[in-house]
Amino acid sequence: MNTFFCSDSSRQAGEDVIGSATNSQTYILVECPQPWTSEVFNSKWVPQNLRILVEKVKRAKLPIRFLLIANDLSHKVNHTTLLIYQKKEGLSNGYCKQELKLANIEQVAAVLQKWLQGISYDSEIETSVIRDILVCTHGSYDKCCARYGAPFYFYATATIADLYLDNVRIWKSSHFGGHRFAPTVIDLPEGRYYGVLDQDSFRSILTRTGDIQCLNKVYRGWGVLPAALQILERELILKNGWDWFNYKVAGKILEQSLDNNTILAELSFEQPSGSLYTYQAKLVKDETKTQQLKSSCNAKQELVVTKYAVASHWLTSSKVTTYST
Predict the structure, then answer these.
(1) Is 0.85 surpassed by the pTM of this model?
(2) Number of domains the chain is built from
(3) pLDDT above 80 (res 205)
(4) Does residue 243 share a domain with residue 103?
């Protein structure tokens, strides 16, 4: 019997979770009751027309991430929630949300077909929800997500209720990568990823209070930035504190050595006051943190997981907004 758990192995190796957030242009989240099969769009409640559409989008290599989501009511509600999150251009704080309430899951494919052609749908609804938090509980894909994700979802639901956060929704989600960091979470509309979470760090993330250093352990990175830049962003968060979450950010890789061991990156951020700062940084492969690991419970062989460190960073420009009195 295989008793190997990839998340236990990652924790024992002391793997740094930063730089593991997926850079996705668009998330399409479809409410669908569980159980879900390992190939999630082959699940019992997924209609054929939706399965075909997802395959078509994959073949066309469109930058869209499809996920199934569910909560404790999904199997008994008489509608299907469809959420579309699209990355904002330029300096941004994440993604724009469109929320649709459809009579049933059979309608999803036709609506998305129109959406892909740029035709809007008239059942878009306004809600008071400002955050959708996805917890991967997809145990048929990787058993760590059942072992750690499912109980975390249960406790996280209680934490949100305790804090009276009526405008935060929590969903069970199908696989979105990084199950060796279970329990793992995406916080939308920002699109930030977290892993190896416990209830204390989760409470800090929800309320943006407490010791910011907890992000050193649980922050996987921001999905709007290239993976290598996510480590620079973490350094800037630790320097700026929770205020950073109110900033708009853009980042890009300027140069990369042929062996990928050295990267020159740039990250700009705008504060709510309008002040704009641009940093450049030299990122180097961190030999002490680069490891060989099995990336999932079912992996046959180990992968080399490259991690970067910020060798140096410097301010290249700043435009500070001052208010005359």
Answers:
(1) yes
(2) 2
(3) yes
(4) no
